[in-house]
Structure formats: C-alpha cells, structure tokens
Amino acid sequence: MIGDTAQIDNKELIEWIDGIPFSRPARNLTRNFSDAVLTAEVLKLYYPRHVELHNYVPANSINIKKENWKMLNRKVLAKLDMKLSSDTIHQLANGSQDAVEKLLTKLRVKVLRDGVEMHKPKLKDVESNILNNHICDALANVTTERIEDANDENVQRTIYTELKQELREKKEVISTLNHKITYLESSMKLKDLRISSLAAQILQNAVEMDRSAKSQSIDDARAKLRSRSHNFHEAKTY
Length: 238
Description:
Number of helices: 7
Shape: rod-shaped
CATH superfamily of the domain at 10-118: Calponin-like domain
Strand content: under 5%
Low-confidence stretches: 1-5, 123-131, 142-150
Structural class: mainly alpha
Distance between the termini: 153 Å
C-alpha cells in the first residue's frame, strides 16, 4: 500500500503536472491518467531505470486500463514502495478523481523526499512516444468501434432471438386457439344435429298426436252415431 505522506496543495500539484513534457495533453486528470500511460511517463522521468514505456498502451477499455495499472503496479510502483491495492486500481481505471489526485500527490511527495531530478527525455524518445501514442490511440479507437459494433451485433442478435422466441410462443398460442376453434365448431355441429333431431322428433310427435286426436275424434263420432242409431231402432220397435 502507499504509505502516508505529507500533503501538498492542489495548486502545487497542478503546476508540477503542467511542467512535465507528456506525449499527449493532460488537461483532465481523471480522463487522461485513467489508463496509467501518463503516470508511467512521470515515473520514467524520475525513475527511468524502472520503466519501459512500450509496456503501457493508451486505452479506452476498462479492462486494458486495469492491465496497464497492474503492470505498472507490479513492475514499478511495488519496487518504489508505492504498491496499489486492487480497489485503488479499479478506481484509477474508472477515472476516480480522488484516486488520481491521491496517487499523483504521493508520487510528488516521494520525488521530493528522494531528491531526484527530472531526467530530460531525448527528443528522439519524445517523438517516438508521441508517435506510439498516436498509433495506440488509433488502434484503441478502432478496437472500441469494433467492440461497439460487436455490442450492436450482440444487441441485434439478442433482439432477434427474443423476437424469434416471441413468434414461436405466439404460434403455439395460435395453434392452441385453432384446436379450440375446431373443437368448438365440432361441438356446435353436434349440438345442431341434436337440435335438428329433437326438432324432428317433436314435429313427429306433434303429427302423431294430431293424428291420434283426429282418429279419436272420428272414433267418438262413429260411436255416437252408432249409439244414436241403436237408440232410434229401439224407439221404433216400441
């Protein structure tokens, strides 16, 4: 862990940072220092034997930023008794202003305590660093675009899969409804047949009852005629 250090004010820290010949502008501490590249450049100026700048590439990806910090932590900071915790590395890679300011403040205090002077980089090295950073920035941007494209493709694939699943479920619902409709139509046909059968039976019964009633009426009339005829003959005999 980084040990306790004396405090320096923010103005002094900014003046110190502004006086360092970085390979790229350091206008925003949280954004520009989040990938560990500029911190490596600071360390290279004061502790050149410990730092190989080509090990640290500009990055937009959080994972690559963390890898830069882990390497810087293992190869440089640990040897300078400034080892970072995993939580601090996570904060630095995610652009925590508090974490960046604390690290730079402790680095500035260490430089002052060690009494080391800034090693002026050779012009060739500066040009090489700038060129490397431009190339790495371009590669990082291309990588980011590819990741974004891949993410878009993944999103589209996810949406396609969800829509396909939804379509499958709707087809299953439609199939179930079609079966129900077929069953209901069959049931309705059976009911229609039963209704027709019952209606025919009722009509037949009505016809038979009507015939029976008519037949009974005729029989009654005939019986009455026979009775009257019999009575008439009896009366005539007397």
